[in-house]
Structure formats: C-alpha cells, structure tokens
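Continued from yesterday's entry.
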Amino acid sequence: MASVATLAFDAYVVDVLLPDLVGHDRKPSAFLVYLVLAGIARRTGRDRVSASLETIAVKTGLSKSSVQSALRHLRRRGLVADEPVSSADPVRTILRPWIR
C-alpha cells in the first residue's frame, strides 16, 4: 500500500485567505495558485519556489492565462513576489503577511 504524505498549512490559509480570495475577490484561481506554490514551498522548506506558468497550470488544472491572471492578483495582494530574473522557471517568493 502506498503511503500518503501530509501537507500542513497555516489555519489562516483556510480560515481567512480562502473565503477572502474566493468569496470576496472572486478569484478562486488565485487561491489554487497560492495553494500549489505554498505546497511546493512547504515540501522544499524554502519560501522561494521555481515554477513556470506551465508547471503551475498542470498542477492546478488551470490554463496558463488563468495562472498569469492569478499571479497578478496575488502580487497585488502581497501574497507572492517575483524575482527580477527572466527564465523558463522564474523564482517566486511565497509571502505570509499574517506572520510578522
């Protein structure tokens, strides 16, 4: 039998961020993208994540244009920051402004 890995998130992600992004902002794609990037960050133990639009699209089931739009929204909300480097796998920093 295959083992199932557990991935823990801050309660804030589900209790506050989910209803805020999905309900208030009406951007469920932004929540999915944040969840995938935060999951990669947790697994690697680093807040800096290298992931292309295509990689994120495959992991979320969204189109690349939806991922781009979601990332723009996350940047505006201060939840993701991009490194100023142009490459196939841009580096994105997952921000947790609720943790000071």
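--- second protein ---
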Amino acid sequence: MRSLVLAALLAATPSLALAELAPAPAPAPAAPTPAPVPGDDDGPITIPFTKYRLDNGLEVILSEDHRLPIVAVNLWYHVGAFHEQPGRTGFAHLFEHMMFQGSRNVDDDVHISMLQNLGATGLNGTTNFDRTNYFQTVPSHHLETALWLEGDRMGFLLDTLTPEKLARQQEVVKNERRERTDAAPYGLANEAAWQTLFPAPHPYYGSVIGSMEDLDAATLDDVRSFFETYYAPSNATLAVVGDFDPATIRETIEKYFGTLPSRPKPEPPAVAPVELASAVELRVDERVATLPKVRVAWHSPAVFQPGDAEADVLAIALSGGKSSRLYKRLVREKQLAQSVSAWQQSLGAQSVFVVDAVARPGVSTDALLAEIDAVLEEVRARGLSAREVRQARNKIETGAVAGLQSVGGFGGKADQLQSYNHFLGDPGKTEWDLERYEAVTSADVQAFARTVLDPDRRVILHATPVAAGGAEAAPAPAASAGKGGR
C-alpha cells in the first residue's frame, strides 16, 4: 500500500498534472471560531455559502462552519439510474463501487482505509435515480488529503481499471441484489409494482441496483464510456463545508481539480411523464415473507414541484405516528395491520406516492385495501384538520433543523446544499423549502388527494404468501423501486 508519507513526497516534483500532486503533511489544527447555528436567532433558516465554477466546469460550493475542527467533503456526480441506457440497468450503482477500487496514485481497495486512518467519519458513496455522491467528514487538518483522494479518482480512475476489478464488483453488486430484492421480504413483489408504474423504456423501469442480466452484461468498455461521459468535472459539484481556511481553500481545490481535462456536460434523457389510463391490480405470490401485504402507489409530482410538499404533509398525517390516520384505523382500532406506512418518494422526473400495509395473520389484503380506501376517501371529502397540518409541518421543520447540526453525512449541511443545487440550481433554498410547507393548507391536501390519488389511476399490489394459501401466480416482471434522495 502506498503510504500517505510517500504520496506527500510527490508534491515536491513540479507538474501541472494532478497525478503528480499529493497533500503535504498537515499542521496541527487551530482553535475553531464559534459559528452561529442556522435558525438560532429565530430568523430565517439559511446556510451561508459561496458558489463558483472552475475553468473545466466543476461547480464548487463553500460553506464555513467553525463550531468544530472538522470539514465535510461532499462530491455529487449528476448521474443516476435515470441516465442509464436500456440493457444497462444498475450501471450507475455498479460504477459507484468501481470508484473505491483505486486510481493512479491510490492503491486498490485502500481509499476507505486511508481516510479511516485519518479519523474520517460519515464516509460513504450512494446512488439513486438522480445522482451519485461520495462524502466524508475529516479533521480540518486532513482536508487536503480528502480533496486529493477525490481528485485522483475523478481524474485517473481509468489508469488502473482491470477486468478483474470489474468482475469482482459485479459479483458484489449481484449479491446486494440477492439480499435486498431476490431474497428480501416482498422484494420481487415490490419490483412488479414499480415496473407497472414505469413500463419500459422509461429510465425508471429498472431498479437502481439493476437486473442480474444487465449486471452480467457490463463490459470494461462500458465502464470506460460511462466514466468519460458522466464523471467529468462539468458534470460534478464539490461541496466543502466546515472548518476550512477561506484564504487558501480555492487554491487547494484548484490544485487537485483545476488541471483535470474539461469534457462536455451530458444532456439528461427527455422523458414525458407516465400516466395510467386505469387502475392496475397485481396479485403476486410472496415466497419470503409470511404475512400478506398490500401496496397502493400513484404517480405524483416531481421533487420540489407543486404538490410535492402536500404529498409529504399527507404522508405524515396518514402514518407519521400512533395517532396518524392509517395507524389509528388499521393497527390500533381494527387491528387489521401489523404495520402501515405512507410516503412520497420524491424523484427528479416524476415521483411516487405509496401506502403500504402488512396484514395481521388471517387478514386479507382486500380487507386492508378497503380500510385504506375509506381513510383516503375521508381526506378527499374533508381534508385534514388544522392540527394535523401543523404537526406535519413541525416534524418536517424539526428534521430539517436537525440536519443542519451536522456539516456532513446523510442530510447534513453539505448534502442539503448539494440537493438544492442539483434540483433547483441554487444551493440557498433552505428557507424557500420550509416556506412551501408553511404554505400548505388542509384544502391543498384535500385537492392533492382528489386529483393525484385518483382511485382509477393507481397500481394495487396484493402480495400473498404461498404458505398462507396464495394461488400460484404467473412470474412477475422484474423491476424495483430504488429509493430517491433529496
């Protein structure tokens, strides 16, 4: 394994190429300067930031937070399962795995351990339909090392790409699919429902994790083409949030990213929204879980679009706690369901609103569906109470403010800046985002339930365990719902 000390010695050789650059040994951290927490003064909840662009197209978002001597490095590539080609489902996620396999100046499979040895936390990479991200939070005096590692794999991953690396990660991802879908309770049944919502050739047709056939079909040339198309500086945004030196940060970023070659930014697929002409009912054998389940799903407005906030408010009112409408009716009062949940899966092109209920022993999915429909019909007829709307808003705002206490990780400040920038082109949308929830009224939710949650434009999944007497069902088409992130 190439040590950090040896890598640092490369910096003594003058060169314009990132391949010859590595961070110098870091000085001890200075005492941090306290910074106010957004919203502490009951004013607007905002994240101060600066955004600029390098000559090669890389977007950079900087946000200082000196409360602790740590800094988050969060890199988003604007590519996800939505951008995959037919026959290559799961490729964005497979490539996420490839990014940890080493690059020109980083040995194979040591990227994570190098950062862990420096005290990094919140270290991961994730893929959804809309983007792929890589993130870590490091002690402030190791920021340069984190930037060097990200820059090296952005610029020089292909230098060490081999068929053996690809084959190894294909097997890793296929095992993930087996665990999360093929052998997971309701996994294949949920696939069938998702694929019915988004028939081929819609980019959402395949799951984020992909099909076995497509994963097997991936070639080394596919990997190279994918990298050259989507892993360009022009298709990425780097966020650095935390206790960094504002006097030197731009120079450091330029050092590790500025010399990377520019390539054209790829165009996203042009896809029309999907509409169901009528309700579709699926009855599928369940071979893993032992209790019946019903899932009802509708197409809904895309993330941050009108109706998206109303969907979140309604989902909380339906299943966000023991006093919520579906939980109270199905679990507490009538004792028909073992569990019940509702959520808006917010995605960039088109979202999905879902109600999911697992039956108690002896209860049919038809009985669950009838009660779900009764609860939704009450919302369509009378909307929500003012108290329900207020409680939902409070939960949403509490979650947003809680995320702002962290500079990195899932839902932290860096992630929020990236999300707003990715979907809206402006990282500074925190207050706007919360205001759209504040504007939601009972009448708005009622209108959403009447128009979007149309009983005649939905997919209804009945998953009945074979052991519970389910009739032998025809094989379901393979599809899966990857979880979208904000």
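DSSP finds 16 helices and eleven strands in the chain. Residues 279 and 457 are 5 Å apart (CA to CA). Will compare against the first tomorrow.
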